[in-house]
Amino acid sequence: MPSEPVPVPAAEAPQPKSTAPAQPTTTPAATAPAPTTTSPPKEEYYQKNKPADQPPPPKRVSRPVNPAPTTPATQPAAPNTPPADAPRLGDVLTPDQQHQYNAAIDVSLAHAQASLGFISTRQLTKEQQATVAEIQNFMQQAQEKRKDELAAAKSLAERAEVLSHDLVASLR
């Protein structure tokens, strides 16, 4: 029996020989121009609480340097001395008001002194003796303040007078 030709798969089938000259096989990468090397695109992540992009702070402008002011050679540098007649803070009183304050101070101090004279003949407790010392202190301060601040001196003299009257009343 004659043998029948056996079909051969295409992969195993012999290739027909071509008459054209053999050309080397090329890949598409070899014929294309070389690609530039670029990094893959960066992935940007979304951050919920990311602050908004702030503009850069303004540039500082340099100022021209001024030379130090010079003092005239004819004027000598004065040491730090306070002015001769420095203004004082306080009440500005007219001469009539000053006279009234001085009279009120004199009256209050005279009443306090009279009360102390009456008390001097009495036997005093330690508390009463402390009150007498306080009255005398107020009287002394009133005399000192009289030179500078008439209102303060008047207030101190009135305190001495009130304390002395209260002390006399407690002894009766």
Describe, in plain words, how this protein is organized in 3D.
With 172 residues, the chain is mostly helical. The protein is 41% helix and 0% strand. The chain has helices at 28-31, 95-119, 126-145, 150-171. The protein starts with 27 loop residues before the first helix and ends with a helix.
Which key features would you list for this structure?
mainly alpha; single chain; 0% strand; 4 helices; 172 residues
Brief summary of the model shown:
Helices cover 41% and strands 0% of the residues. The protein has four helices and no strands.
Task: Lay out the secondary structure.
Elements: H1 28-31, H2 95-119, H3 126-145, H4 150-171
Helix pairs in contact: 2-3, 2-4, 3-4
Q: How many DSSP-defined strands? A: 0
Structural class: mainly alpha
Total helical elements? 4
Tertiary shape? elongated
Mean pLDDT: 75
Q: Give me the strand/helix succession.
A: HHHH
Oligomer: single chain
Tell me the helix content: 40-55%
- Per DSSP, what share of the residues sits in E-state strands of 2 or more residues? under 5%
C-alpha end-to-end distance: 170 Å
Low-confidence stretches: none
* Rg (CA only): 57 Å
Main sheet record: none
